[in-house]
Each structure stands twice: as structure tokens, then as C-alpha cells.
Amino acid sequence: MSAARPLPRLIERLPKVRGRLTEKAALAGITWFRVGGPAEVMFRPADVDDLRQFIKAKPVDVPVTVIGVGSNLLVRDGGIPGVTIRLGRGFAAIAAEGAVVRAGAAALDVNVALAARDAGIGGLEFLSGIPGTVGGALRMNAGAYGREVKDVLVAAEAVCAQGCLRRLEPAAMGLSYRHCAVPEDWIFVAAEFEGAQADSRVIAARMDEIARARAGTQPIRTRTGGSTFANPPGAKAWELIDRAGCRGLRQGGATVSEMHCNFLINTGGASAADIEGLGEEVRRRVREHSGVELQWEIRRVGIPAGGAP
User: Fold this and answer.
1) Against a cut of 0.85, is the pTM above it?
2) Structural domains in the chain plus CATH codes
């Protein structure tokens, strides 16, 4: 009896692309927590057409996960099965015209704010206080310092699950606090934001104020993933965590920040399991103390170490 033929590797089943496909791509180095296993296959499309053709041609059973710069992301220790898509240089352009700034989904939020400042467009300063990319900001309706993406969004563009490019108006996106109703398997590729003409010096002063506020209240120079839990209606997550006695709580190499207890920190030797386990312990203690069920704001993807897809 002849030996069974080995199953083809995932990368051998994928369509040809103009961008780059990489097997077992390391992810820990690109996430802000600096933890997590590899991507089974990483795809970095050359441009929107490359992405569309890939989505159209890929096998239907292959799962897709989209990541940005990893600022609000926890990759589990077993890595991410299937294809992980990371948009790069071909999706990072920013252009301002009138009071509108158009940006690719891979553009950093802070760079959009800087471009708006240079063009004398006010109202987008809050983006400088949001770590991450435009794509991630759209996906979670990110916000900071009194404003949210939905307050300034003109339209977004996304590649749907069938590979078609769609233009989306804000009213059709179901945007609410840290929520977007656009299907998870749609991939944002660009957005247009509108502000108002203003003095660049006034805009710069507001951005400086935001930078000082972040540095003074958040552990931004640590291995963290930003705000861990969304604020429940009528409450602040950090206050509930503090009242439940979780400030400084530790699990393995992970700890709750002493500076801002809605931030979890990798102190240097944490695993993704340490961080997620600590977060779940915080949720348990808050639930027991106040009856409030905290919801994760950090996106958690992948499988545990030794797990199966």
C-alpha cells in the first residue's frame, strides 16, 4: 500500500499575487504587546486591485484576519491560522483638498492629524491621540478627547467578501460607541474625513495639548495595547477596575498599570496567555464587585499555544 500523499501547505493553495506571501510570519515583533505566535501565511497586497483579486480567488475555506500596526491587538500564543492580511505602503497615502482629508487604511491616525494640521484643517486633532491606523479606527469607531471617527467621517471604502470595492456612507455603517456594523469579513481600504478651515498654529497647539495629556495619564512608553476595556454606559472602565482592587494586579509577566488601570502591560516576559488571563481576572473581579460585565476593547485573535484552528 502506498503512503498517503501529504496535504498541500496553505501557501500552495493560494492564488498568485503581485504583493508578498510569507509562511510562518512572526507577529510578536509588530504588536505593541510584543507577544503572540506567527501567522500561518501573511499576505501584504501591493494595492487595492491585488487585494481584490486575492479575495476573489482564494479558497472559500481559508480564514482571513486583517491586522494593522498591532496597537490595540492581542495575538494568542498559537498564532493565527489561515491568511493574515496586513496592508502596507500601497494603502498609506494621505491627501488633503479643501476641508477633506483622504487616507488609506494603513495610514497612521497621527499622520492623518498631521496632514490636516499642515493643510489648515481643524477638527481632526483627536486622531493624534489614537494609536493605530485608519482601518482599525474605522473598524471600532475609535475616539478620544471628546470626538469619534463617526463625527468626521465622509465615507469609507472597503473590499467585500466577494472582492468587490464598496463605498460606504457613515449612515450605512452602524457606527456607535466602539462599534461598527460593517461585516467583519469586509476589509477597509480608505476613508475620507472632513474638518473645517482653521489656523494651523491653533491646530498644532491642540495636538500638543493632547500629546501632553496622553503622556501624563497613560503608560504610552510601555509594552501595552491601549485601553483594554470599553467604558460601560454611564461609567468609566478604569474607575470600576480601580474600585475592584485591580490596580497593580499581576499574572505571570503581565500587570495592570499603576498609572492607568484600564491598561495592561507586558513587563518583559509575559505571554499572550498571561495578558488575556489577567484581563479575564480583572473582568471577574469587576463583575463580582459592581455587577458590571466589562467588554474587551482590545481585539484578541488567533489560537492558544498548542491549540488547533
Assistant:
1) yes
2) 18-89 (3.30.43.10), 91-203 (3.30.465.10), 220-301 (3.90.78.10)
